[in-house]
UniProtKB/TrEMBL annotation, chain A:
It comes from Didymosphaeria variabile. Residues 246-344 form the Large ribosomal subunit protein uL5 C-terminal domain. Keywords: Ribonucleoprotein, Ribosomal protein. This is Large ribosomal subunit protein uL5m. Residues 188-241 form the Large ribosomal subunit protein uL5 N-terminal domain. The gene is mrpl7. Gene3D superfamilies: 3.30.1440.10.
TrEMBL record, chain B:
Residues 164-194 are annotated as: Disordered. Residues 60-205 form the Large ribosomal subunit protein mL46 N-terminal domain. This is Large ribosomal subunit protein mL46. Belongs to the mitochondrion-specific ribosomal protein mL46 family. CDD domains: NUDIX_MRP_L46. SUPFAM superfamilies: NAD(P)-binding Rossmann-fold domains. It comes from the Eukaryota. Its main location: mitochondrion.
């Protein structure tokens, strides 16, 4: 496209129209209430004040200062000094609004991140660029993509209820709308979005200790609080009874996910004897890949090994690991995981 | 055809000089298709025009290889990053549930006693955040003082090693131990010495050995060779009857030898360099060769080392260089074509880079220590913002350049003072990052563009700014 050549030419084209504008406009066509108010309140910047002297900086002891201040005086209860955000959100018009979740006083505040994971750095510096090169599709100048016909069907008929009704899904049983595969650009290089660890322990219906052990193991391994799930239906074949707790999961994102994946690839999987890899049949066509670990393999996690005695050996569960990526097909997701270091075996599911 | 296309075409037409052939082809064809040819739209996919039957001019085609060694270790954290991480970890100590001691240490075991001794000394279960207690009266004191070492990476590593090596009883006088009351034989628990991590700075770093692959472990290194004429460039050779990938293998073998384990990333080139001859050459096929185009293939090195001993391309020397070191070695126009294919994390100064990339001459100010960095971004001129004569310098640098306006990336009273005089003298456009920059002139000529609402309007920029 001509756009490719354009940046320089755009500028030279635009430059012709630039001249000191004839119409002198007072820049504040639009006023923000906050900006005006701020100027009224703060007329001088804190940067104008000289920094404290070196002596003062070296001898500064916040604890001693606070003790000195409190000496001999009875303080009000702590709640008088502390701001507590409202317990409930009462809507946007309520005068007492909760602070954003990123504010440490907020009730929803969660600290973090605590580190810059190595895997994330590798992804940024190496993997992303390589995947972009590997999946690059060249379109010659002037190429226009073929028109995609509407994938959803119209409601045909003269029923008045068809008006404004959402379009029908694709024809056929079990047929669903697949994700669109957008052309690859530097903006949509697939990346890890989430990792789900899941462990199902039907024995927990009789003895809840199984569920506790599974939860502790998942928490230790994933650094995320585990949630327990009930069986939704009676399934005689699997011995499931409706309403009984049978499984635990935990979801990891960002830093936790990267640390978990790096640990898995560098520590746990290499120590498994005769591990073939992730089955090639894995993948749901939307960029998510799953595989499982047996109880014996779960014990290889360093967090479990460090206090292996704390877990009853017979109650250690296996687990399913699902790696969610924002790839839109199995092939791209597999490429990403292979670059990270997960091998695949057997027939590939494309 | 939509409005975007039309704008593009109008701009391209306005720019005056002829645009490249294939683009012009496309544009004129678009006109035609819009006017008459209705069948064109039914042909879903556009087939680009075939080249002329007897081309008179041509370019020679070279295959080049960009052989790179990816970073081997994590990068050094910026002091702000490490301070931020330490602060977050201390906040975590305040909000996390207490450490479940009996889950990890059985009561009355040596490990348990050691734990108790150590927690008494450092007050917190975390071993590398310094002496800090997350619960109690003084939990608010979670910020480190000026000059404290706690956020330093090496300090944290030392604390972890110390924790692994000591029993916590070293500092206590022998009589005062809590377990000596009975006649329990105080078994001396000795921890064995832990292996130190390897240094992040290697021998090659100290010697500045450009031939070594052990240098600059935090950076991506690229193989650069010196050709017959003494110019530094990526290995390259004339493309023969082969694919680019085969050519990449051959060029690498002919130049740097076979003693390397490499992987060619993909089948497509990652960039190209065009060299125009001053006088066109006549080739054997009767074509006028106007110049050379080199297409670069990306290769990663896994093991081995380059060896020029038996190279067949007449190369004299080689170096493994990081991106900014390449800039110093290669020629300016070569650098311009290759710099964007050497992938790197972007480090600030995005505005300047965007402006330079779109062909604008940037004249800017910065602090004294950053001048070299800003220069490397390709600005036209850069000044230290402190001396009072900076305005004159800027005005003289702007002489003979078509002037667009002022962009202020800070929009405070101080920063406004920097450009006010320039703006008074020249006028033009003005952009800031706050709606009402303090110190803005009453009689400011021109338009003010606000950047404050860009993140909410443009989804991509907004996501990038907010880090989602």
């Amino acid at each position: 496209m001509a756009l490719r050549e354009l940046p320089f030419r755009t500028v030279s084209g635009l430059c012709r129209e630039v001249r000191p504008a004839v119409h002198a406009v007072r820049p504040s066509l639009r006023r923000n209430a906050s900006a005006g108010a701020l100027q009224e309140v703060e007329d001088s910047s804190s940067f104008a004040v000289p920094p404290p002297s070196k002596d003062l900086v070296q001898n500064f002891d916040p604890i001693a200062r606070s003790r000195l201040r409190r000496q001999g005086k009875k303080q009000l209860p702590a709640s008088r000094y502390q701001y507590r955000p409202p317990k409930y959100y009462r809507g946007p018009l309520h005068p007492h609004q909760p602070p954003p979740a990123s504010d440490p006083v907020s009730r929803e505040f969660q600290p973090g991140p605590f580190s810059l994971p190595r895997l994330e750095q590798t992804y940024q510096s190496t993997i992303a660029a390589d995947i972009l090169t590997l999946t690059y599709q060249h379109y010659p100048p002037g190429y226009r993509p073929p028109k995609v016909e509407n994938r959803l069907r119209q409601w045909s008929g003269d029923s008045p209820y068809f008006k404004n009704r959402p379009l029908r899904g694709p024809r056929g049983r079990g047929e669903e709308l697949r994700l669109l595969n957008e052309p690859r650009t530097f903006r949509n290089v697939p990346k890890i979005t989430k990792i789900t660890v899941h462990s199902m322990v039907p024995e927990a219906q009789e003895n809840s200790a199984y569920l506790h052990v599974a939860g502790m193991i998942l928490q230790a391994v994933s650094n995320v609080r585990a949630t327990a799930h009930k069986a939704r239906h009676n399934v005689v074949g699997w011995g499931l009874r409706e309403g009984k707790y049978v499984a635990v999961t935990s979801h990891m994102e960002r830093e936790d996910a990267h640390h978990f994946l790096a640990k898995l690839v560098d520590v746990v999987l290499p120590r498994i004897k005769e591990w073939k890899g992730v089955p090639g049949s894995s993948g749901d066509g939307a960029g998510n890949m799953s595989f499982g670990l047996t109880p014996a393999q779960v014990t290889l996690f360093p967090e479990i090994e460090v206090n292996y005695d704390a877990y009853p050996p017979k109650m250690i569960p296996g687990m399913h690991i699902t790696i969610h990526t924002d790839a839109t097909n199995n092939k791209d997701a597999r490429l990403l995981l292979q670059a990270i270091g997960l091998p695949f075996y057997g027939k590939l599911n494309d | 055809m939509n409005a975007g296309h039309q704008t593009t075409r109008r701009l391209a037409a306005k720019a005056g000089k002829p645009i490249c052939r294939s683009c012009r082809d496309t544009l004129s064809r678009n006109y035609a298709s819009a006017a008459a040819v209705q069948t064109e739209d039914q042909v879903a996919q556009h087939i680009p025009p075939v080249a002329q039957t007897s081309p008179q001019t041509a370019y020679g085609v070279n295959a080049g290889v960009v052989l790179s060694r990816p970073p081997q270790i994590t990068r050094d954290l910026h002091p702000f990053e490490s301070a931020f991480f330490l602060y977050q970890r201390r906040l975590n100590e305040r909000s996390a549930l207490p450490f479940t001691r009996y889950f990890y240490y059985k009561d009355r075991t040596p490990a348990d006693r050691e734990w108790k001794r150590k927690i008494k000394q450092r007050l917190t279960p975390a071993r590398d955040i310094g002496r800090y207690k997350g619960y109690g009266e003084e939990a608010w004191n979670d910020e480190v003082l000026v000059g404290a070492k706690e956020s330093d990476f090496n300090w944290q590593v030392e604390r972890l090693l110390e924790d692994a090596e000591t029993t916590g009883a070293e500092d206590q006088p022998p009589g005062s131990s809590e377990t000596t009351s009975s006649a329990v034989t105080q078994k001396k628990v000795e921890h064995e010495a832990v292996e130190r991590p390897m240094s992040r700075i290697t021998e090659a770093d100290k010697k500045n050995d450009f031939k070594s692959l052990n240098r600059a472990l935090q950076r991506t290194l690229y193989l650069l060779v010196k050709d017959k004429e003494g110019r530094w460039m990526f290995p390259q050779d004339r493309l023969q009857k082969e694919t680019l990938k085969e050519a990449a293998h051959r060029v690498l073998e002919y130049s740097a030898g076979v003693n390397m384990n490499t992987w060619v990333v993909g089948n497509v080139p990652i960039g190209h360099y065009q060299q125009d001859y001053t006088k066109s050459l006549k080739t054997d096929a009767g074509l006028n060769e106007l110049g050379l185009k080199t297409f670069f293939m990306k290769i990663r090195i896994m093991a081995g080392q380059a060896n020029l001993k038996e190279n067949q391309l007449g190369l004299k020397d080689f170096k493994w260089l990081a991106k900014e070191e390449i800039q110093k070695e290669v020629e300016q126009d070569y650098w311009r074509s290759i710099k964007n294919m050497l992938a790197e994390r972007s480090v600030g100064a995005v505005a300047v880079q965007l402006a330079v990339a779109s062909g604008v001459n940037v004249v800017t100010v910065c602090s004294a220590k950053n001048i070299d960095k800003v220069k490397a971004l390709g600005v036209h001129a850069v000044f230290n913002y402190n001396p009072p004569s900076v305005t004159d310098g800027i005005l003289s640098a702007l002489k003979g350049i078509e002037y667009l306006g002022v962009a202020d990336g800070i929009s405070t009273a101080d920063s406004a003072a920097g450009w006010t005089l320039v703006y008074k003298a020249l006028g033009g456009r003005l952009s800031g990052v706050q709606p009402n920059p303090p110190g803005i002139l009453e009689d400011a000529q021109g338009e003010l563009l606000w950047a404050d609402n860009t993140p909410s309007r443009d989804r991509d920029i907004g996501e990038a700014v907010r880090g989602r």
